[in-house]
Every structure is written in structure tokens, then in C-alpha cells.
């Protein structure tokens, strides 16, 4: 959806890793009705919920949705293959979870962004121009909204943005998510954007025939992982459980925060867990090896003793990416535990808050593919990936 890094998780998907689909399914059920084209796809988790959920609500409630869908559909279809592919390439240049801005948005800008997003989706109000895209912030175009791919930062003017400039940001987000959707359609042989009731029933029957666990059992196991990893009691949360085509359940807990858990229904174990509460705001953090080393004890306690996701003698290490000014890119560090069965457990951590963002389990092949992809990308971008082996004695 990086996995825990979301983008690397999405890339690893091409090696048969299974990504969560909670927002994706809801968006797809509406937007896949477009003629041979779709508007949105979760990045993940790559799509930004602000775009995805706003689109769902507007398209469900608007009496003019039909005309708007056609307008958006045409705009998305007008993109060239080269433009879409470039967006995919640019998305893979950063391990940041969220987009950010070069300064804090004003209250007026936030209000107008919400209103303009609705007009974009509901009335087909599009910008006349488009954002500039660069890999380094120092290359930002003066007087023009600029998107920095490596940090996923929009460089915006110090003065209040105009409606046109805000629309350019909204438009770029839509086109980026659409490009990912098209790319995914081309790489997943059995991918079907619309998840019908019949398909859900078929997924559930597949799990049942494989002697897989029930929805209720999956929900209970997911709640247990949440308690063990985040120390959160979700008994009062709203819960949505969906059966996926790969014989897994996606369990979505929602209250003050949102927690997504993927459970392997056949093997009755965790595949992926993510909490939005500890997602970083794409702020680089000063590298502190002592902090990373010391927090490893907390990670080991959680992953080995509480969640039982790795063995006591598992080899493990931590990684992070250094920016040119020797800071941890996006404020994210990741710990990796190598299991005896070849699988690798990845734990992404918010450096500043010292909180686990998410946990994912890769096969050996997926992990190697992910590592090679990262190494190649960071080398091309001139970034340094730091990897530190830890003592496995516990």
C-alpha cells in the first residue's frame, strides 16, 4: 500500500502480496460503472481517503452524478499512457504515507478545498492549468504549485492560494489515483474492480470450503491483534468484515480512529494491520541511532511476546532512508524480523511519536523483490538507505 510502506506494499502486490481493500471496494462499486474507465483507486493504501470518501459521498448523493461522472471520465481518459506511467513512476519515488504542504493551510484554504473538491466531483469544475512536478524541492517552479515526488510535498505560495491553484492540487490527486487504478488493472490478471454480492458470496464459500475461519472468528482474532499491538480495546468500535478473493478477511474497525486488519482465513493468522492514528505528516526527523536501538526492545516485546508474530531467535534489523540533510525521510523507520519459515515481518514506526503505524508479513520472495525495488529507486534518487543489524538475543 513500503509495507509497511504503502507504496512498496502495492509494488509487492505484483508478487502476489494481498493488500487491504476497504475504501477501495466502496469507491470501486460506484466508480467502476464508468464506461471502460474508472476515477479512483486506493493507494494502500495509496489513495488519500480525503479524495476517495469525498468522491463516494458526492457521487451517491448528487442528482447530477451521471453527467459529472461522464465529465470526470472524459478528463481521466484524456490522459496519455505516457502521462499515466509517469505518475506511477513518480508515486514510487517516496515512502511517505501522506501528502503534505510546504506551509500550513489556512482555515479559508481548507474550507475552499472542501468546497472545490465537491465542485470538481459534483459539477465538473476543473482547473485550467496543472501543477509542476519535480523530484527535489529546490527545483520547485516559482509562482507555480509544485509537487515534490520524493517527499510528496506540494510547494505552495506563502500567500493565500487561489481557487485555480487549489483545483490543480485536487486534479493532480484524482489523476494520480486513476493512473494507479489503470496500472493495477494491467498487472492483476484476475482483478475485477466491481465486487458484487455474488462475488462476495463466492469469496465466503471459497473460505468455507477450505475450512477457513468464520467472519466472527476473524473479527475476534483481528481485535486480539489490535489489543496486543496497539493496546486498544475495539469492543465499542463499528466493525465491517469482508471476504476477499484470496481467502482472507479484511476487518475494518472505526470509531475515533480507523484500523484495518487483514486475516488469512485459512491459516488463521495476521497478514496486515494498519492504524491511521499514528501516520506521520511526512515530516523528516533527525536520525538518532540510540532511539532506534532502544525502541527495538519495545518492538520485540510487542511482536514476539504479545502478538506472537516472530520467534525469540528471529534475526532482525531496522532500516530508514536518509535525506540529503541527514534526516530520516518522512519520519519513518522500519523493523524487520526474519522468521524460520522464510517469511519476514515488517513493522513501520512513527519516529517522532515512537508508535507503530502498521505491521505486514511478507513471503521471502516478496521481501526480496521489495528490497531490490527500494535499492534501485533510492540509488536513482541519490538517497541513502541505512540498514542496521540487531542482536537477536532476547
From TrEMBL:
Keywords: Membrane, Transmembrane, Transmembrane helix. It comes from the Bacteria. This is PepSY domain-containing protein. The keyword Transmembrane applies. The chain crosses the membrane at residues 50-72. Residues 80-110, 189-208 are annotated as: Disordered.
